[in-house]
Amino acid sequence: MTNQPEPSRGLVLVVEDEPAIADVLKMYLTREGFGVSVARDGEAGLADAQSQRPVAVILDVGLPGIDGTEVCRRLRAENNWVPVLFCTARDDEVDRVLGLEMGGDDYITKPFSPREVVARVKAAARRAAGPQAEGEVLRVGAVELDLAARRVLLQGSAIDLTATEFDLLAHLMSKPGRVFSRDQLLSEVWGYAAAVGTRTVDVHVAQVRGKLGDLSPIRTVRGVGYAVSEPAGADDGGN
Ligand code: CA
Question: What angle do CA 186, 169, 157 make, to 5 degrees?
């Protein structure tokens, strides 16, 4: 009998300079059937993310050499959209790591529970795999979203969204006009309960809006949440 179960869920890359944290994450993830590779600094993490094609990356913000945000920024600059779960010891970094420029998918603040990290990694990997209704194309206003191809067109031009941004938009567009609360979006899109805080939702909505610009169909329903709808008085010649 081997001492490691055969990794069945794909490889998770842990970029973390504190060996104790890396070890506990590795133990929990391995137990859940993930393969785990550990990089101790930003340069190694970046190289491994490119060469090993992980299903998700757990990325410490505070790293020797290039920090976690720079690792993520460089990955995105190379059009690598692997789900990135940032670990940060500082709550005030959250907006920055999830921001447009960095392109993180999710974050967790230290000290964290390994169990929670594993739950988030599973959710991120599942989202990235994205086995949604195949062949379906959703259209709202100027936005066309192809679920099978995981592609978004804005007035016919392709828009790059992260896996999480895509799933958020797809979820909203699956029921135009319906208002989703932030808690609903967290549990239905991210796949975990609302206790972690809803700022993740707000930041990602802001990112999607940033990418869709004036043609974004997402509207804020004050005190409730978000919905998509055709632009008021739409007369843009859409079919
Ligand atoms: Ca660190």
Answer: 155
Q: Count other Cβ atoms within 10 Å, centred on residue 227.
A: 17
Distance 209 CA to ligand 1 centre (A): 32
Cα separations in angstroms, 169 against 77, 135, 144: 22, 17, 11
Report pLDDT digits (tens) over 129-186. 654 445 688 999 899 999 888 899 999 899 999 888 999 999 999 888 889 998 888 8
Q: CA 203, CA 201: separation in Å to the nearest integer? A: 5
Distance CA 86, CA 94 (A): 9
Please give the distance, rounded to the nearest whole angstrom, from the Cα atom of residue 63 to the centre of ligand 1: 5
pTM as predicted? 0.60
Residue 114's SS3 state is helix
Cis preceding linkage at 176, omega within 30: no
For residue 111, the CA-to-ligand 1 centroid distance in Å is 12
Residue 76 CA to ligand 1 centre (angstroms): 21
Whether the CB-CB separation of 32 and 3 falls below 8 Å is answered with: no
Expressed in angstroms and rounded, the spacing between residue 136 Cα and the centre of ligand 1 is 42
What's the CA-to-centroid distance between 69 and ligand 1, angstroms?
12
Amino acid symbol at 54: P
Other CB atoms within 10 A of residue 49 CB = 24
